[in-house]
Amino acid sequence: MKISGAEMFVKALKEEKVDTLFAYPGGQAIDLFNALYGQKDIQVVLPRHEQALVHAADGYARSTGKVGVCLVTSGPGATNLVTGVATANYDSVPLVCFTGQVPTNLIGNDAFQEVDTIGIMRSICKYAVTVRKREDLAKIIKKAFYVAKTGKPGVVVVDIPKDIQLALGDDTYPKEVNIRGYKPNTEVHSGQVKRALTVLKNAKKPVFLIGGGVNIAHANKELTELVELTRVPVITTIMGKGAIDTNHKLYVGNIGIHGCYAANHAISECDVLFSIGTRFNDRITGKIETFASKAKIIHVDIDTAAISRNIVVDIPIVGDAKKAIKALLEKAKPLETSKWINQINEWKKEYPINEGNSDMAPAKIIKAINKIFKGETIITTDVGQNQLWTTQFIELNSKRKLLTSGGLGTMGYGLPAAIGAKIANPKSDVIAIAGDGGMQMNIQEMATAVVNELPITICVLNNGYLGNVRQWQEMFYKKRYSNTCLRYRKGCEIACNNPNNKCPAFTPDFVKLAESYGAKGIRVTKEEEIEKVLKQAKKETKVPTLIEFIIDREVNVLPMVKPGNPLNEITLEFKEGE
Amino acid sequence: MVNSEMKKRWICLFVENEIGVLARVSGLFSSKSYNIDTITVGTTEDTTISRMTISFTSDDKTFEQIKKQFNRSVEVIKVVDYTDIPIHMKEILFIRVNHCSEKDKKEIFRIAKIFDISIVDYNYSSILLECTQTEDRNDALIQLLQEKFLNRIEITRGGVVATEAIGISNR
User: Fold this and answer.
1) What value of ipTM does the predicted structure carry?
2) Pick from A122, A126, A129: CB nearest B23
3) Domain spanning A362-550 has what CATH number?
4) Which of A301, A407, B70, B160 is least surrounded, with the fewest CB atoms within 10 Å of its CB?
């Protein structure tokens, strides 16, 4: 039977078992939307901005492990995807993004709403392709889903010109896909595993450094078994946090420029660094020359290009994290590490993360979330101090998961990602944690949350600043708060460091704003209200709750490794003039 | 051990013969802030596959990165490192020499004979030379002519084409 390209598109989604599509219509996608009209098997979610649309699909994908699917129109629809595509691809999130395109005979003519979508996307996604012939459509969609979810997952962009959407063609959807240039290898080399275990066996001060790859591979159970078997303490990156229960007695904490003292020191002192699923990003290594300088380094990664890119490793193991951990589990033996663990525990006890003692200290809010949300919970963050406080204090385990933009560091990620996560996991509690800056980058998604009756809890930590940059300005730029005050008004003094009675109370008034969307809005200014409002928000079944926590204006995220310093030279407390 | 020394490299890529693949390949170099010296592309006996020969200068670490990134690209079918293996390598080079005196012409004819270069076009004051030799020899020839005919030569380089050697190497 002959069917149109648009009908083939819908058929392909069904064949790929897509249950949810995040989509925003437009002129060059209208035929695809027409084919979707009335479809019962596919829920189409309409966010209010294409950037948020990708983040929502990203939250859907991260929280389920399934491929997130987006559909937008050509031109501005496609260009609005850019930030979200880069965000997801950087964190290895499987997405397939369909973009409408002007008809093939107009491509290159500077037609209305025409951009070279593939040219723009090429360097920020895993694979990008324009469908140029109707007969290639099904094959390309099949390929797109396969490439997105296999190997190191990533984003695939499929650009479909309008005439291809309308053209009639074959209705068969291929069962298999064979790409001669793409054969992802997930199997681990047993010789390398053996070599790694030989090195590990003789270690006196070993550590596991766990990155996001373990969470992506869903190897949490296996990792916990391996850790308990070998008795090797575990340190995580921000993306790896939650790979093992954060209350596990062998869990140390996060490493990095905002890592905890014990973790950073353990990395600097260890004799074997066994890392799985991390690419040694500059945020985690500090000064690269001194990173784990006493250690033999073993590196498991699915991406050959991640091996020895930032640091030179002694034993590389290319493959899927879960398969590698399983292979290790077969042969690994317990190690005598009690002395080393005692040393780490002493560091932990002596230099805990400073939680601050003001009434509305961010740590108190995050800890209250830990206390109130005990069941299946997904926490998303924005980017900035809110993200760093969350990653410092949030407790994660098999029930509680964290979604955060680790690689690209995208402000505006938190709320839409929470929407996607809630749609995918209606039974889980979903909490978005954001600052007052990032919240305003995708505030329009309040509407999406309200119309879809998503009872998510949105925690805005409001300090009236773009707090992370302000912190840098305070610590390294002599308190020259250049364009970081969100309460700034025309007429403010240039050198103003202190808000005064001329400052607007709220810009915007988040409570009223939430209410205007039809959500609940609550402002919290006192410590004793924190738990109460969180409980109240948790009870909601249909309406999102925005809680605005008014926190101290100038709280810093500490500890911190200053730029260019080794990991173990860590600033625990910052005093002015240092 | 990784060597941070800059060195001339050659690689051969087999890629899908599709729109945008060249942009993907060249984009990988620009994203690493590396310049391509020469790049040649043509279809193979299988018209769905194109073959590229790329020459560039980089350190070992970046070179490894570039190779790995090509290997994981969906559009790249095969990557062969030509830097240290026996290959046959040729580059077509046109050199036009302008404002030649009779003496210059004699000199150019001599050079052509000795260096095995063809004279393919000619008029009363200009000579067009065609040279199909290795990149290194072409470099040397350009240097020679530049010294001799300063500001009077025009160069068109075709880029390196290379293939694996069967018996003997010629690079």
Assistant:
1) 0.90
2) A122
3) 3.40.50.970
4) A407
